[in-house]
Amino acid sequence: MARDEYVPNSTSTIKEALMVGNTESDYLLFIDGKAIAVVEAKREDNPLGDEVKAQAEGYATSPQSWYGLWFQKLIPLVYLANGNKMYFKNMLKRILLPNIRIRFVSV
Description:
globular; seven-stranded mixed β-sheet
């Protein structure tokens, strides 16, 4: 669904979701009207390096105030994909385990 068609509590996915600072995540996934995951999609030739990881993590930590959230100021799940590979990171672990460095894992 396009972001201009979004009605709170009515969708499961928004394409090109508007984030704080007028940036856009490629997709936001919702459960029961609350944002649960950010998906950053890139072209196949993009290696999904540190810049893309930082971009997606930034989206997860800067949701719009009008998005329903499960956790305060946090969309907990982050995915990176390029058509060849996909990575996942659970951002909740940084809250639950603040002294442990959490990395993206291949899915």
